[in-house]
Design a protein that fits this description.
Helices cover about 15% and strands about 45% of the residues. With about 300 residues, it is α+β, with helices and mostly antiparallel strands. The chain has one domain: Clam (outer membrane lipoprotein receptor (LolB), chain A). The strands form two sheets. The chain has a 15-stranded mixed β-sheet that branches. Strands 13-14 form a two-stranded antiparallel ribbon. It is globular.
Length: about 300
């Protein structure tokens, strides 16, 4: 008898709960609201290519490049990330010369007065750096990392050449390609942008050891198949240089990024480069990459 009463009581409780549901859901619906989620705007054209086609296009671009001259504005920043500080130096104008395989020269001019601030040149193996305002001169290996507290003394032609031009994939290198889509906010138009990309990872065997180490990672915009970012690694597989390429422009027939952002994480500095003029594949002689030191100045070896 008691069990039957309990069952009956339980049944009445359930019926009462069911009777309350409409009123409860009505209260909840009064508190809820609907909103539209922002839909990322995709580019009008998204190109699709295979891994081999992407690498073939990159190799064709690299093969067509022989030399380049450019006028640029550079802002250098010394970073102290642990302290949360950065020192920005005044913008200066520079003339840039490049020629395969890795010859480079940069003539930096002092702000306002436009006198020669530094002259850096390399034959691809050795570099020479002249700093007339300080009456100093330096020599060293083009691919070695700098260790000087003065940022301009750490400018090495090797990494600069590889940052300014995206090289092709060598026969002894391995590669993979993945497709992904990034979403970012367009601050001016206040909507989201979908950016379909190809990510090309280039690797090689470490000398005398098994396994592969990273050489470069290059991101390509699938709307144009142009490089937008490049990470470069050293011989030990450590991240050495990060490059972001801005919107490409037509410089009298030469298609080249209007801006470049270079960061050297291990050396605590970065360069923001604004490109003013570009001439592609002009004839450049060996002599144009040779830096002459002022008379009486003894060059110091930079490591």
């Amino acid at each position: 008898m008691n069990e039957r009463k309990r069952m009956r009581a339980s049944g009445w409780t359930s019926l009462a709960a069911l009777a309350l549901l409409p009123s409860l859901t009505g209260c909840v619906s009064m508190l809820t609201s609907k909103r539209k989620l922002p839909v990322p705007v995709a580019p009008a054209v998204v190109q699709t290519v295979t891994e081999d086609q992407l690498v073939e296009k990159l190799n064709e671009q690299w093969a067509s490049f022989q030399s380049m001259t450019a006028s640029v504005d550079i802002v250098a920043s010394h970073l102290k990330e642990k302290q949360g500080e950065a020192t920005d130096y005044p913008s200066f104008r520079a003339n840039l010369l490049m020629r395969k395989p890795e010859m480079l020269r940069i003539l930096g001019k002092a702000p306002l007065v436009q006198t020669l601030m530094f002259d850096l040149g390399s034959d691809g193996q050795e570099f020479r750096l002249s700093v007339p305002p300080k009456n100093k001169a330096f020599v060293g290996k083009s691919r070695e990392k700098g260790t000087s507290p003065n940022w301009y003394e750490n400018l090495r032609p090797g990494f600069l050449f590889r940052a300014f031009v995206v090289r092709g994939v060598s026969a002894d290198e391995y590669y993979t390609v993945i497709a992904e889509t990034l979403t970012e906010e367009d601050a001016t138009k206040r909507h989201l942008l979908a950016k379909p990309e190809y990510v090309l990872s280039i690797m090689r065997h470490r000398a005398g050891q098994h396994g592969l180490i990273p050489v470069r990672v290059v991101r390509f915009d699938r709307a144009t198949l142009q490089a937008t970012e490049q990470d470069l690694y050293d011989d030990q597989g450590n991240l050495e240089t990060q490059v972001v390429y801005g919107q490409y422009q037509n410089f009298d027939g030469a298609i080249y990024p209007g801006t470049l952002f270079l960061k050297r994480p291990e050396e605590d500095y970065q360069l923001s480069v604004t490109v003013e003029r570009v001439t592609m594949n002009p004839p450049l002689s060996d002599e144009q990459f040779h830096v002459k030191f002022p008379e009486g100045v003894t060059a110091r070896q930079l490591k």
